Amino acid sequence: MSRPATRAATGPIAAAGRSLPPDLARGMMLLIIAVVHAYLFAFPFLPGTGHTADLGAADTVTSSLVTLFAESRGYPMFAALFGYGLVMVARRQDATNGARAARRLLRRRGGWLIAFGFLHVVLLYAGDILTAYGILALAFAGAPRWTPRRILTTAALLGGAGALLYSAGMLGMTALAGSAGIPAPDSLPADVAGRATAWPIMAVLLALTSIAPVLIGVWAAQQRIMEQPEQHRALLRRTAAIGIPVAVLGGVPQVLIITGAIADPGTWATSAFFVLHLFTGYAGGFGYAALIALVAARLVRRPAGPGRIATALAACGQWSMTCYLLQSVAWFVLFYAYTLDLTRFLNVTAAVLVGVAVWLATVVVADLGHRAGRRGPAEALLRRLTYGAPAGAPPVTAGR
């Protein structure tokens, strides 16, 4: 095989060759992330303090729904899909250049994700996940070739320990803020300094809590579950039927605290409910991914194809990093104390609706870009930095 053919085979996958379920799941996952981030700007509940706010009837309902169905449920799905993507990248590289080249490529990609994450934090938003995924790509670059038993065992041991360490770290950090919460920086320099200072701590904590879902995503990709949902229908149905209700039930104690239904639960109860909420969120994230895969399988079987809406959502999934960063641009402009500071005028419900509107705007942007045959700018830059720019590479083409 000639060198040019090898470079073409190991480069990024063209849009027309992508599978619908993973992209559709990423697009829907970004809705959950947008809702949670907007919600937290309006209602920054601190799990280590029991700090709550006085909520009206509408905000009580909104806060309950976000806690039960979104908070700590979106990031596990995001992490699992990231792990799934690691295998798809490694499989393509491994087929031509071998396992060592695949590990080098994943580590190079992880290093650039860390750089992207640092710039994301400094320029836009403290709630970065890219750095954590970069760390995990460096640490688990060889995981795509592990045996399923090793992956699941590692996920159970390291993932469980990591989630507990994350919980302890978050509870400890937020407890230091006191019952009044953390005051928002009122100037750009103060905000940048605070975000940059907290960046390495938060990156490690988020990496710890993401170990299990990333490795579960690696295992799922080895089985090609999202690419071939028809062959795994029973597993997907069980995962959705069990995972989503477990997440909802596990979030009930957290709802009782944040809405004030339980008055002064105490530090230990508050901490235990937070940990329960976090762990059951894994089940919810996996359940959502399974449900979306089942829906995508039905859409693909339709004679007319997935349809306009599903195609737009999948385009958002293909542009997932770009859309994620665009959300942070929106938070910077809309919610910060030294920009528009809309949280002064919005209640929790209105802020969540703003989050939904921001997500819809990114779907439109991604769909227009996809129809124009373009990759997301962030994805294109990451691919160029990871793979280089092979001479004579064919242009990206949009596909259904």
Automatic annotation (TrEMBL):
It comes from the Bacteria. InterPro entries: Bact_Transport_Assoc, DUF418. The chain crosses the membrane at residues 28-46, 132-148, 155-178, 198-221, 242-262, 274-297, 309-339, 345-366. Residues 221-388 form the DUF418 domain. Keywords: Membrane, Transmembrane, Transmembrane helix. It holds the Pfam family DUF418. This is Putative membrane protein YeiB.
